[in-house]
Amino acid sequence: MTDTILEMVSIVKTFPGVVALDDVTLTVRRGQIHAICGENGAGKSTLMKVLSGVYPHGTYSGQILYDGREAVFGSINDSEALGIVIIHQELALSPYLSIAENIFLGNERRSRLGLIDWGRTNADAAALMAAVGLDENPTTPVGAIGVGKQQLVEIAKALSKDVRLLILDEPTAALNDTDSEHLLGLLRSLRDQGITCIMISHKLNELIEIADAITVIRDGRTIESLDGSDATQERLIKAMVGRDLSHRYPERERDVGPEVLRVEDWTVCHPTQPGRVMIRSASFTVHAGEVVGIAGLMGAGRTELAMSLFGMSYGANISGRVFLHGGQVRLSSVADAIDNGLAYVSEDRKRYGLNLLTDVKTNITAAGLRKLTGPMLGWVDDNEEIRVAEGYRSALAIKTPTVLAGVAKLSGGNQQKVVLGKWLYTDPDVLILDEPTRGIDVGAKYEIYTLINEMVAQGKAVVVISSELPEVMGISDRIYTLSAGVITGEVDARTATAETLMELMTREKDTFE
Amino acid sequence: MSTSDTRTAILHAPDSPPSSPGARASLPGGFGRYLLDNARKNGILLAFVVVVVVFSILQPKFLSPANLTNLVLQFAYVLILALGMLMVIVLAQIDLSVGSVVALTGAVAAVVVVRGGAPWWMGVLAAIAVGLVVGAWQGFWVAVVGIPGFIVSLGGMLVFRGLAQLILDYKSLSPFGGTYYNIANGFINGVLGGPGYDIFTLVVFAIAVVGYAGSQWRARMGQIAYRQAVAPTPFFVAKLVVVAAVAMAFAWRISHNRGLPFILILLAVLIMVYSMVMGRTAFGRDIYAIGGNRWAAELSGVKVKWVTFWTFVNMGFLSAVGGVVFSARMNGAQPAAGTGFELDAIAACFIGGASTTGGIGRIAGAVIGGLIMAVISNGMQLMGVSQGVQPVVKGLILTAAVAFDLFNKRRSVTAA
Q1: ipTM attached to this prediction
Q2: Which residues lie closer than 8 Å to B127 by C-beta, 6 or more apart?
Q3: What is the C-alpha separation between B99 and B92, in angstroms, rounded?
Q4: pTM for this structure?
Q5: Is A79 left (phi over 0), alpha (psi -120 to 50) or beta?
Q6: C-alpha to C-alpha distance for A209 and A483, rounded to whole angstroms
Q7: Measured between beta carbons, which residues in chain B are less than 8 angstroms from residue A387?
Q8: A380 vs B226: CB contact, 8 Å cut-off?
Q9: Which residue of A has its CA nearest to B229?
Q10: Which site from A186, A452, A471, B49 is most exposed, i.e. has the minimal number of CB atoms within 10 Å?
């Protein structure tokens, strides 16, 4: 047994017309947590697919040494047989099956007759669940538990396969701080039990906290490998983007104008559970030229608040008053909201923001399409449409060869710019941005922040919902905190500290009821 | 991803549009690349050409004036139904009831005209009114209540079939005769005379071809004015020449038979109108948007319920048109009329490249898909292929077409 569990030497992987990995070398020591970071598209996921056999031996060049022996994986089954398990960012669980069934999917506990032994399945599952700290009934359907717990089910599933090298792709991207903490703690205890982890993440502070070693990849090349103790955010960012990002949030002159949006006593119930109040008596204001942050933990009702305002897209029994430019309005459909100058950029752009089947152009004009139609029969002027789309492509620096290219092929950051372009084309007065930088890389985040600044410079009012405290504090003028559906505080961003915000965001229900 | 950015940059148009106004942009890789790209996109058109060539070799009678005319008369209904079905399928729904609605609307027309002695147009209006009511009924359940179209129309299939039987009292009702009969069997012939062929037919086709070329030219000029990449000029010209040649050859053939079938004019108008609705109007865009991502469409202000409702109403309308055309063709209404027509229409859409999960599909594709089905049925009938073999062949072709489409998409994904 050597000290090194995995060595990937000079890996080169090409796709038609592009070199995805260009001489990548990765050395992972046994019993460590090894983090890989890099911008989106740097080649991290490709590297993990090479390692796990998704891209079989022979489709790449270079050598993989696992436990000192050359590894030749023809498929993902070969790598799993040697204890290499990969957990993808998009979890591969079946929502209607129970936790226990998911853990043993494809690996069922059977009785002598070949039938599934439910007693043993559930008992074994309970043992594995205890090992990962998952406090649920093994028979609960996976769809009924939160994303954080689903992540734990994936890890329990990996443990059931006698994992020795666990690969996690962006494990905390969809998790709130509490769940992230729990997950990181679990990874530490797995490490102490001798399980090696490779973890891909964008969250640099998290990496620095947990990783024993960090490898930075950029443009398909290994840029540097360093000990966790040597890493600082600045150093990693510099290696990832190849430039210094001394200011992570662009500077902006504060120039707050008159009030644009005022919400009073806004109360929203759950759409299918009538008695359940999701937002209780929320009141807030937004001014022209102002960025208002809404900070809240997952489940606090941030998205519910935004979507219920946006043409009552969420909720039932909605009550309260909305004023735009001082006049009361009733926004009972999305079309009403758009007509009144509201725009909402969803936190889940693939599900709620884009039509991935079509091109950049069609997505950009989707919400403002009626501006392109003549008086007769709703005829779309498609040449004018391309001109409009080209305008946003250059204004937002969307990296696409043409606006006729499919939007599915773009990176997360560029997809987000397409969604922003869609809403800017409706010429809104108030933009509600729900987690505008989720899942996009550092460079693109900076561009999005710059765009937000440009919007407010034009006198638009921007509401940013975010679960990343540094982000909310870095880009907002004022911050409202939301906890369990109640606005618990209003803080000037210049005087806000992470501690005060977190205290407001975690206020328990009984303290304000 | 920066990797796929580089990849697409290699395969697609250059980053900046041509700078000099009016410059004719062409795609990198030039003509050959363009042809290959188009062959991939238009695989279904190639398949159609292959089918036609194969049958004209196997059975020389296939291209005879009488048979081509017959082909139009016999299969018009599939194309009419496929137009509406395509819109429903792009919406990520399905309508299984159209065959029954064909029977019901035909029965209503027969009751009005044959039994009631009313003029032909009253029968047509009654059928269309029933079609609209049927569409509104199904649209209500799908759009407002939210029951999947599959279930609603499965119920509709039974309900409307039963109503057709009740209205007709389980017996066929005929003959229509007169103008009603001529809707599907009439010709415009001899208006301008002609030595053994109908000059009027040729003139109508010539006008249509010139109109088509003109509109293509205008679109191209618009694209160039807006500095977009357009097809290389030789390709553009070649495409126009081929289309014109095929259309005129077809016209030449049928002008030697009974002239211009009335139903062909109806078909052409419907195809043109629906191509424009789906390709150029905000309503069509809304259908694609809903099929592509219902939630994103809803949050972009698309009135999902409204669009869904009217798409089903439209399907009811076209089913009624199909019912009128089919009952006119049969010169009577039968309780069992239209059985399985929904499957022909659905197959036409999928052969024509529509996606089973919605969001993708073109009117032109559905029309070509319908023509492929028509040519195969007609060709096999001409060759005397036995009754049982025909559905087997059609079913295999449906499966093969969709498999081919999938294969193509996977290839273009990996190549992109």
Answers
A1: 0.81
A2: B105, B106, B108, B109, B320, B323, B324
A3: 20
A4: 0.80
A5: alpha
A6: 27
A7: 226
A8: no
A9: A402
A10: B49
